[in-house]
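User: Here's a chain of 124 residues. Predict its fold as tokens.
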Amino acid sequence: MSDTPHNSVCWVEIAVSDLYASKAFYGAVLQQSLTVDHTGPNPAVFLSFNDNTPGIGGHLYPGKPSREGATIHFVVPDDLDAARARITDAGGQVESPDIAITPGTFFYARDPDGNSIAMFKANG
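Assistant: Prediction complete.
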């Protein structure tokens, strides 16, 4: 992920109330064989671009489904502390501490309209 252009969207996550039922739904809709991954801080079902291309287009995770839409993760051009300052300076709100996952670290925030976003920094 270190070659990902800065400020690009790197993934979308969808909170679901029943991970296994949602896995079955999205597997059928996307015509993909999906599995539950337990390597991160929460179980997740990764939605790849297609069965032959590596990469993650998004993932499902157990949580409270949002009526406001999915969380969009952006790759930061510098570091998470600088991104955190830009969010608060521009009128947004930081909603979580840094969260480490295998490819890097991110945090959740809200834009001034309340939309859920996250800022991601890849390892390396």
